[in-house]
Amino acid sequence: MRNLFLSTMLVVATSQAALAAGGGAAVGADAPAFTLKDLGGKSIALADYKDKTVVLEWFNPECPYVRASHTKGSLVDTAKQMTSKGVVWLAVNSAAPGRQGAGVDKNREAQKAFGLEHPILLDENGEVGKAYGATNTPHMYVIAKGKLVYRGAIDNSPDGEKGEPQGGTLVNYVTAALDDVAAGRPVRTAETKAYGCGVKYAK
Amino acid sequence: MTARVLVALAAFAGAARAAEPPRERVEKPEYVASLGGSGETRPWLPALAEVQVASRAGFHVNADYPTSFVVAPGAAELRFPRARIDGTRVIRVPCEAKAEATCGLKVLVPFFVARPGSYAVGGTVRFSVCDDDRCLIEKVDLSRLVTAR
Fold first, then answer.
1. Which of A15, A139, A163, A174 is the most exposed place for a label (fewest CB within 10 A)?
2. Is there a contact between A64 and B137 if contact means CB atoms under 8 Å apart?
3. Which residues of B touch A (CB under 8 A)?
């Protein structure tokens, strides 16, 4: 009984430590499983891509950082280029109904305006976003063979337009991580601080 | 005839918007941006203009955004030691009510003039403000007249 109590306390403490360290799935851990519906109502499960490299992009069509990234910044055509190499790219919108960027119509318009060919998944109750610890839009995750290998910003230019790279040289952290995965080496920059708008979870 | 007048008025309004000169103070529901400092100086004396951004109505300054002020090229007699001010030279003003957030920005812009006269000192401040529901990325042109005697 005492052992059970101690084990339970350890699990609680570990979970709280993970949350304190940024929350959600940690790099190196199993990527949290999910099944979400796309804008057409089709269910898509992460488990469908267990042998693939998957990119999750937290998305909000009305966030100016997302718009800048998709029209001038590091997300312009990146998903198309990566999917042509066999990567699975999924956008996830965790905005709650009634909040900025929520709803099928707005996301469908953005999909057209940004020329996106990958699915946008709706996570209106925010469960998947919270499981991953997604705090920003865009907030990027790379999953290789079911393990999280990168989480953070799309790049090192927090204006979203590639115009202000920290250190003077633009680095697209996601394509760099995908290159590392494709080459079979550990991801060199596995975690960065995401920038952008806050995810519009239910209040 | 009425339609023609309306078209002409619309064209005039558009032209007026396009030609809108930079101002000393721009007020929006989400923030106030202003350019202050002494309006008078003397030739060759160091002077300072002060850019200020204050968030309003539940908004805070997004501290992750790379705030910058880029000076507008002016008269040849108006000199700026730095054409762009950013990074640690941008002063972040904490919120009074919320200790964790930034509610204002301040940028000191050094300049001097080489001859007596009136000069438009200005530039573009780039920043981002957010509240719980939305973020804005703003590029505001500011300018003020400085007289050197």
1. A15
2. yes
3. 64-66, 68, 86, 126, 128, 130, 132-137
Residues sharing a CB contact under 8 Å with residue A43, sequence separation 6 or more, in sequence order? A35, A36, A37
Give the C-alpha separation, A87 to A85, whole Å.
6
Please judge whether A99 and B133 are an interchain contact, meaning their C-beta atoms are less than 8 angstroms apart.
yes
CB B107 within 8 A of CB B91: yes
Task: Tell me how far apart the 2 most distant CA atoms of chain A are, in Å.
Answer: 59
> Which secondary-structure segment (H or E) carries B108?
strand B102-113
Subunit contact B132:A159, Cβ cutoff 8 A = no
Q: For residues A140 and A173, is the Cβ–Cβ distance under 8 A?
A: yes
What are the tokens at A61?
């069509």
* B128 chain-A contacts, CB cut-off 8 A: 64
**Where do we find the tokens 């007699």?**
B77
Q: How high is the pLDDT of residue A22?
A: 57
Contact B133 A100 (CB under 8 A): yes
Q: What is the DSSP string of B24-61?
A: SEEE-SSEEEEEEE-SEE-TTS-EEEEEEEEE-TT-EE
**Ordered domains of chain A (ranges, CATH):** 2-198 (3.40.30.10)
Residue A93, amino acid? N
pTM: 0.82
Percent of chain B that is helix, strand, coil (3-state, to 5): 15, 50, 35
Tens of pLDDT, residue by residue over B43-100, are 999 999 999 999 997 899 998 899 999 999 888 999 999 999 998 899 999 888 766 5
Give the chain B residue whose CA is nearest to the CA of A194.
B64
Pairing state of beta strands A53-58 and A88-93?
parallel
Cα of B55 to nearest chain A Cα, Å? 16
Contact B132 A198 (CB under 8 A): yes
Q: Do B135 and A68 touch (CB under 8 A)?
A: no
User: ipTM of this model?
Assistant: 0.75
Calculate ∠ Cα A56-A61-A64, nearest 5°. Answer: 105
Question: Does the pLDDT at position A4 exceed 70?
Answer: no
